[in-house]
């Protein structure tokens, strides 16, 4: 399970996907399958969450990794490259960006 904390040393990755409402559920299904069968089993994976906006035109994916290198190795693997080709077919664009947590509020 992802933990949002200023004191953690994890690598946080937020990926946003832009799609039409007609392909939103297909993309959610493809992302869910990728996490279930491959991504969640990779070294350094901590947890992730998928969020869909109410218009079903955007998906935000929040994931955490033990180290930046763990995420990069997963991303460069042949299996993930294949998943990314499928994601690209289902959306207009997507972009994974690495972030550091600089502050949290309760």
From TrEMBL:
InterPro entries: ABM_dom, Dimeric_a/b-barrel. Pfam families: ABM (PF03992). Signal peptide: none annotated. Keywords: Monooxygenase, Oxidoreductase. Residues 11-102 form the ABM domain. GO terms for molecular function: monooxygenase activity. This is Heme-degrading monooxygenase HmoA. It comes from Tropicimonas isoalkanivorans.
